[in-house]
Specification:
Blueprint lengths: L1 E5 L5 H10 L3 E6 L2 H9 L3 E4 L16 E4 L11 H16 L5 E7 L10 E2 L10 H16 L12 E7 L1 E3 L5 H8 L4 E2 L5 E2 L1 E3 H14 L5 E4 L5 E2 H11 L7 E2 L14 E2 L2 H7 L8 H8 L15
Parallel strand pairs: 1-2, 1-4, 2-3, 4-5, 5-7, 6-15, 7-12, 8-11, 9-14
Antiparallel strand pairs: 10-13
Helix pairs in contact: 1-6, 3-4, 7-9
């Protein structure tokens, strides 16, 4: 079967590798000739184009499944709204009638809760950061483009939304490690809750959603245990032989979920997608991301 990835980067390449291993053909959109050559070497058919340039998307093929996993490139000169919302709109105009399933990668930043409360798919979405606001607008666009099936059109194309918490994994920790080793204080409160998912588990969630996600459903994808930021960075510091972390409580975290304070639950994804995690928490995930090994005994998810 034929698959299409829009945003074949840190997450998308892992999904592409799994699809290729399963015998599917994979096409990916890329803006770069160099990246196109690399995709070709990996067995992926590249299409040169830009989500912000609708004319460049005319060559996108008819496929069974589409994964939209576009990240925000701060050097692109485009706003988050241009990429996340208008870029998605351009893609949907091309693929909505030419695929059976679309999986849109959103973010847990759509939740604006900041008092340490638990959130799940039923929680209100009132994002306070621009990235979360753009993701929520994009979700609404996906739902409008792929309405729920009904008795008159039970076989119409469908979509799922995956709200991922912060992705981490190999190659994603270098700047934090350098900061810890240099004894640089980290902006934001150390006692704020942090929600993460290992990139390999995020890729597994995409595949699980494609297999058994219910049409139109949204799933929150995160690991089993939220942690305090000081717990996370203390563990990271120990693993890289850095001094204990210091925090600037009076300065908001610059990027990511560290600027908020909530606890994300993966209960629905576990129940409906059969989601299983290779890295149920950062205790096992951090050593893997650093190229180390760790043994973490299985435990019941700490979810609400």
């Amino acid at each position: 079967m034929h698959k299409l990835i829009i945003g074949c980067g840190y997450l998308g390449r892992r999904v592409a590798a799994a699809w290729l291993q399963a015998g599917h053909s994979v096409t990916a959109l890329t803006r770069s000739e160099n990246n196109a050559a690399e995709l070709s070497r990996l067995g992926i058919t590249p299409v040169i184009g830009d989500v912000c340039d609708p004319k460049s998307l005319a060559a996108l093929p008819v496929v069974q499944s589409v994964l939209f996993a576009v990240g925000y490139d701060r050097t692109s000169g485009r706003s988050q709204h241009e990429v996340y919302v208008e870029g998605l709109r351009h893609v949907l105009e091309q693929v909505a009638g030419r695929c059976e399933r679309l999986i849109y990668i959103s973010s847990s930043s759509v939740y604006g809760q900041s008092s340490g409360e638990w959130v799940d798919e039923s929680s209100p979405c009132e994002p306070v950061q621009s990235g979360g606001q753009c993701c929520l607008a994009a979700e609404e666009l996906v739902r409008a483009t792929f309405p729920l099936p009904d008795a008159t059109a039970p076989a119409r194309p469908s979509a799922n939304i995956l709200r991922l918490s912060g992705i981490y994994g190999p190659g994603r920790l270098l700047s934090r490690v350098e900061s810890l080793r240099a004894r640089e204080p980290l902006a934001g409160r150390g006692d704020a809750w942090l929600n993460l998912v290992h990139v390999d588990d995020a890729a597994g969630a995409v595949l699980a959603c494609e297999r058994q996600g219910q049409p139109g459903e949204t799933y929150l994808i995160t690991d089993d245990r939220p942690m305090r930021r000081d717990e996370y960075y203390s563990q990271l510091a120990r693993l890289v032989a850095a001094p204990p972390p210091q925090f600037l409580d009076d300065q908001p975290a610059k990027r990511g979920s560290g600027g908020l304070n909530k606890c994300c639950s993966n209960r629905k994804a576990r129940a409906e997608l059969g989601l299983t995690l290779d890295f149920p928490s950062f205790i096992a995930g951090l050593p893997h991301a650093l190229g180390l090994t760790a043994n973490e005994p299985p435990s019941e998810p700490v979810v609400r």
